[in-house]
Design brief:
The structure holds two protein chains of two kinds. By secondary structure, chain A is an alpha+beta fold. Chain A has a five-stranded mixed β-sheet with strand order 2-1-5-3-4, sandwiched between helices. Chain A has a three-stranded antiparallel β-sheet with strand order 6-7-10. A three-stranded antiparallel β-sheet of chain A has the order 11-12-13. Chain B is of the alpha/beta class. Chain B folds into four domains: 82 residues, no CATH class; 82 residues, 3-Layer(aba) Sandwich (Glutaredoxin), CATH 3.40.30; 220 residues, Rossmann fold; 170 residues, Roll (Ubiquitin-like (UB roll)), CATH 3.10.20. Chain B has a five-stranded mixed β-sheet, with helices on both faces. Chain B has a five-stranded mixed β-sheet with strand order 11-10-14-12-13, with helices on both faces. The chains are: A alpha+beta, B alpha/beta.
Chain lengths: 305, 612
């Protein structure tokens, strides 16, 4: 693979041809904040916290999806870049519950001195704005500020959709659809700030095309999609990361050989994932591998008399 | 993929509507289908989703869960996806509603002419927005009838839609009692002369319109110079046409000003199949020139797009027309049929082995679909969300194929250039903005309408052509003197009296931090409540953001909220400028990148925010 020369923050740099900017920057020791980006899926390119400045481009460009070109002049830390990243983080944090984002994202928000309170107190809404006709909205009052706060959707024992935490990154829609599962149970519905992840006509997940593979959970960057076990433990205050260990094993259900990562707390499995970078699964599992673990901790049935 | 449909049955009427629609499209094959197969994301007949939804909405008046299931099964689109698309457009209702829906424009140009009184009257007569059993009403963004403000658009189940204006408050009661009567009025007004009050000045694109040539007659069109350009273009050959267009210096009239010849060359250099598209999704508030050009000279657009197809080497063209232009839609449909019958569209044109046909696609109420990559997604049956660029449309466009998208007005210039030559084209205008520009002039001018003037014409000369400031607005209040002008629509900038000498050319506008944009010129007098106007623009972007990227989805909300603070003197506009910069820098497409232009320019001019 041949290398491309470019200028990164005033210094000469080299990265392999075909690299996205995010990889090219990383190869030269410059990390980039991300929210909607995952290494193993095609970049949704929507959160825009990864923007960098490229000479010759009027707007900033998303590092996650823009390919490196020979001779590009890239600034990763200019005042425009810092301003855009800070404001986008502030806008997201002022409208979405970001309490479950990764440590790295939290560090970036501190780096940019993110203060969502600058927009004022947020307005709690009581549910998705599904009833709102596209192109129409309630006029603001100048005191409260809109957010996507809403009660979590708990419709089954397997996972919870807590859309107050949704940044609308499309990863779940893509995983349910063309990227992994080809089930197409969910889509983005509505428009603008009322855009939301939804089944058709907001029907319940058990009635929808959902096959409960949970591959949407695997790609959710904000904890909006969360296994029921984890959700309940967090809700009761019993979720304790410091008492957890992760064990890698192979799924016993069929012969494919999917690797599992079992998150275990106090001797019980509380969450099952598969490594995103795994050759076989790319993080994907089926309903059995991801959710079929309750028997592990079950008490043995008493012998028939 | 096995589709899963939740229990919801279509009614007999819904099934019949879908069956009729499907049988009308059953025999379709051709380049569209061939191209679609190369795009792995695409599935069979997904491109029929938007017209299929239109068929249901038009027949039934709303789209039920059962109807959506039935349509989805017919075209193999998962119901969640179909719902995502249907809920994207404001002309589709996913809940039962009255069969007659008045879309009442309350946007800037209509607002300057009493639209809020019409809104009040609707509320009085019909009750709250969205209520009513036989007639309901909704506020609407600009309907592109600013020359006859205040305007409304009537969407009807089982009957043709129509638009109407001016609607005065005392008329709206009648509008409801006598829809048929109003529609009759509209047919008379469809070739309304006041839209082009320019008279016999030197016009190029407006010539047949000013001369009142019957827009419904192919013979009339041909007798007045029509189809001479296509014949000449075919003689010239594809490459010579591209060279001539480059030589003329023609630039795009949609707002971005990209060189048209270069765009055609870039697409022609890519492998076939290719597509050409006329972007007639004219939705920029204050812009109505393309509606007038299409309603009153529809064959010209068809001829020009055919030339583009010949020159680029495309066998299929699309005209993407906004859904709120029913008269333009019916005239285009009729003109396309007439052109096909006359052998001017179809296979082996002129015995030269050239194949080219045009499909008319109708939008459904989404400003963003005028953005070219959102337009591709809309035609393909996806949500009208813009794509990331690069790759550019000339490389990867509609159905993943090289595609040229040109504004209606841009294409019409091609006819003139081919007949008169590049030098003659350049005789008017400025060296960097050659030719003429068609402006939509509205607001507080005496003669709102469409005006064609050479690039470089001073703003005040254009306003003089439009009769200067009007004396009164239908008895509401007297108009005072010139206060400000919004140039380029909602995505444009406010300019004050000091800009009246501005030469209307791309380079001169850029020098003043403005842009001609789509050519919208909305004039306000000194007594206009500019805070209300700017707030309406902020609300417009909040309504029309597609919601895909965070800076625009949330930034347009914050911008509107912060406007309230600016209005009440709590904020001097510092944070609103910060939000605006982030939207401009970090948004995916032109909507977010320009969503703060008008607000920031109003702050700069002191039209709003003076007190903090």
């Amino acid at each position: 693979m041949s290398g491309l020369e470019f200028i990164l923050d005033g210094e000469r740099a080299v990265a392999p041809a075909g690299s996205t900017l995010i990889r090219a920057l990383s190869a030269n020791g410059v990390e980039t904040p991300t929210l909607c980006y995952l290494e193993h899926t095609s970049a949704p390119n929507v959160c825009r916290v990864c923007v960098v400045e490229v000479e010759g481009s009027r707007p900033l460009v998303p590092a996650c999806s823009r390919l490196l070109e020979e001779g590009m002049v890239v600034s990763s830390d200019s005042s425009r870049v810092r301003h855009a990243r800070k404001l986008v983080f502030e806008m997201l944090a002022s409208s979405v519950d970001l309490s479950l984002v990764s440590e790295e994202t939290g560090a970036w928000m501190r780096e940019y001195d993110v203060d969502p309170g600058r927009f004022g107190p947020t307005l709690r809404t009581d549910g998705p704005a599904a009833s709102m006709r596209p192109g129409h909205h309630e006029r603001p009052d100048g005191l409260s500020f809109a957010s996507v706060a809403q009660p979590p959707l708990i419709q089954d024992d397997l996972y919870v959709r807590d859309y107050a935490k949704c940044i609308l990154c499309y990863q779940c829609v893509n995983a349910c659809g063309p990227e992994a599962q080809n089930t197409f149970a969910i889509s983005v519905a509505g428009r603008g700030f009322e855009a939301r992840i939804s089944t058709e006509f907001e029907i319940g997940l058990p009635d929808s095309a959902c096959v409960y593979c949970g591959n949407c959970i695997a790609v959710c960057p904000t904890g909006a999609l969360i296994p029921r076990t984890e959700f309940d433990l967090r809700a009761s205050g019993g979720w304790a990361a410091d008492r957890q260990s992760v064990t890698r094993t192979v799924c016993p259900y069929c012969g494919v050989g999917c690797n599992l990562e079992l998150t275990v707390q106090d001797g019980a499995i509380v969450r099952v994932d598969s490594p995103l970078d795994h050759d076989v699964t790319s993080g994907n599992l089926c309903i059995k591998g991801r959710f079929g673990f309750s028997h592990v901790g079950a008490q043995p049935r008493s012998e028939p008399a | 993929m096995d589709l899963h449909f939740a229990d919801a049955e279509a009614t007999e009427a819904e099934r019949a509507a879908v069956d009729r629609f499907m049988s009308a499209h059953a025999s379709e094959t051709g380049p569209t289908k061939a191209a679609r197969l190369e795009r792995p994301r695409s599935r069979e007949r997904r491109d029929l989703l938007l017209p299929g939804l239109h068929a249901l909405q038009a027949a039934i008046g709303w789209i039920s869960h059962g109807a959506l299931n039935y349509l989805g099964a017919a075209i193999a689109v998962p119901p969640a996806d179909a719902y995502g698309v249907a809920s994207f457009y404001s002309m589709f209702s996913l809940t039962p509603q009255a069969p007659n829906v008045l879309h009442v424009c309350d946007d800037i140009a209509c607002r300057a002419n009493g639209a809020l009184e019409v809104v009040d009257e609707c509320e009085r007569v019909f009750g709250p927005e969205g209520s009513g059993d036989s007639v309901t009403w909704h506020r609407s963004p600009c309907l592109g009838r600013c020359d006859r403000a205040p305007a409304l658009f009537v969407q009807r189940a089982g009957e043709d839609d129509f638009d109407h204006g001016p609607v005065h408050a005392d008329l709206s009661g009648r509008a409801i009692d006598g829809l048929a009567e109003l529609e009759g009025m509209n047919i008379d007004l469809g070739i309304e002369r006041s839209a082009t009050p320019q008279g016999q000045a030197e016009v190029r694109l407006l010539r047949r319109i000013v001369e009142r040539i019957d827009p419904s007659s192919l013979e009339g069109y041909r007798a007045n110079g029509g189809y001479a350009a296509l014949h000449r273009a075919v003689e010239m050959g594809a490459e010579s046409i591209r060279d001539l267009i480059s030589e003329s210096g023609l630039t795009g009239r949609g707002g971005a000003g990209f060189p048209t010849g270069l765009k055609w060359k870039m697409a022609a250099a890519e492998a076939a199949p290719r597509f050409v598209i006329a972007n007639a999704d004219e939705s920029e508030p204050g812009t109505f020139k393309d509606r007038v050009l299409i309603e009153q000279d529809p064959f010209a657009l068809i001829e020009a797009l055919t030339i583009a197809g010949v020159s680029v080497g495309a066998e299929k063209g699309f005209i993407y027309l906004r859904g709120e232009y029913p008269v333009a839609g019916r005239r285009l449909e009729a003109a396309l049929a007439a052109a096909r019958d006359a052998g001017l569209l179809g296979r082996d044109l002129f015995g030269r082995g050239i194949s080219f046909d045009i499909e008319l696609r109708i939008g459904a109420g989404a400003y963003i679909c005028g953005e070219e990559t959102a337009l591709f997604n809309s035609i393909e049956g996806y949500r009208g969300e813009p794509r990331n660029k690069p790759p550019y449309p000339t490389q990867v466009g509609l159905f993943g194929r090289p595609t040229v998208v040109n504004n209606v007005e841009t294409l019409l210039n091609v006819l003139f250039i081919i007949m008169e030559g590049a030098d003659e084209y350049r005789r008017l205008g400025t060296p960097t903005s050659p030719g003429t520009k068609v402006f939509s002039v509205s607001g507080h001018v005496a003669k709102p309408g469409v005006y064609e003037v050479p690039f470089g014409t001073p703003l005040q000369d254009l306003l003089a052509l439009a009769g200067g400031m009007r004396k009164e607005t239908g008895g509401m209040r007297n108009i005072t003197s010139f206060g400000s002008v919004l140039l380029g629509g909602a995505a444009g900038t406010f300019l004050g009296p000091e800009a009246l000498d501005l030469p209307l050319a791309n380079e001169a506008a850029i020098e003043r931090n403005a842009s001609l944009g789509s050519g919208a010129v909305v004039v306000f007098d000194t007594e206009t409540d500019m805070f209300e106007m700017v707030s309406r623009i902020a609300a417009f972007f909040r309504d029309e953001s597609c919601g895909q990227c965070a800076p625009c989805r949330i930034g347009t909300v914050r911008q509107e909220e912060l406007m309230v603070r600016v209005g009440s003197g709590f904020d001097s506009g510092g944070l609103i400028r910060e939000v605006g910069r982030a939207m401009t820098d970090a948004s995916i497409c032109g909507l977010g990148q320009t969503a703060s232009n008008a607000v920031v320019s109003a702050l700069d001019l002191g039209l709003i925010g003076g007190d903090a």
